[in-house]
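Hi U.,

Before I forget, here's the chain from the pilot set. I'm dumping it here mostly so it's searchable later in email.
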Amino acid sequence: MIPLSAYGRPHRITSRIVGKIQSSANEPWPRRLRMAQTWDEIEDLEGFDGILCADPVDSERLERAGVPVVHGLSVSHLAEGDVVSIDPRGHVRTLYRRASTYNALFATDRCNSLCLMCSQPPRDVDDNWRVQEMLDTIALIDPTTAELGISGGEPTLLKDGLLQVVSACKERLPNTSLHVLSNGRLFRYGSFAKRFAAIQHHDLMIGIPVYSDLEDRHDHVVQAKGAFEETLIGLHNLGRYGVPVEIRVVLHSFTYERLPQLAEFVYRNLTFASHVTFMGLEMMGYAVGNLESLWIDPWEYRGELETATLFLAERGMNVSVYNHQLCTIPESIWPYARKSISDWKNEYLPQCDGCKVQARCGGFFSSAISRKVSQHIHPFVEDDRR
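Structure:
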């Protein structure tokens, strides 16, 4: 698992700083940060707006630096072109990793749902400051970045702030696809959906969960009465205004039984959806406390997953299976399985060693390794026809 944050000793940091790691002050980027293992590696501080140094630095050198410094800091996970935030406590958070294809902007801790398996439990805090942090980050992201996500919490709670961020992505990153994760409930307001559509982002998708074809089952999973109706209205408003949507279904004990019926519901009522994904459970946040009631071995629902996946595929809908190991699902749906777990939290088990299809397999969330995994994990020793 790759760390996305580290603590060091701060010097001259009075407010949050967002900057880009650069080895040269001649690069055409604002807020340049120099990173080094030792202070002796830094020949010239001119042109840099801050320093990240792995080794401790003596007070005399810190005073001469004249710029914010975090020292005594682990920097092994950082690289040229990464974007980080630094706060007065010496907390350095990675906001963007240039070498990764799994970058996402974190919009807010707040949410208007309380999903039983939420991997990022919401907090009722005023974090509108994150809008400016996202805008500062977007200004520093390499414009050749292929894709970028926006997640939370519930990003739509930022309202105008989210529209501002999406507009900035359109203007600053004209070649980057944008994937926004939302529960879709606030798009029930047609005016908000219309304003979102009016941005006319060149390559955008909004991923919205629908957990059942039954209202009470969906509402139970998200722990919000009326959420099913609000979500469907939101989806139809987005479809009405031409915003591409993805239907996301997390698979666990409350959702797997009616997967075939849900697939038919989606086909008949949400045919405009650009993508449908069936997703394995991430064991973080609320999912940990609710694991005994949520957990079902993927092997046990492979039949329902196969039926639902092939039903949609055979009717021309774009469907994928995320976060699953190939040895736990029928080979008939292997063509729809994707390597979807972010690189910084993706691992494999020792029994996966030697598997001939591991390069194609989704692997495991790091959080699952010490908790629960399927009892049917095994290596494929031959890959003759696949």
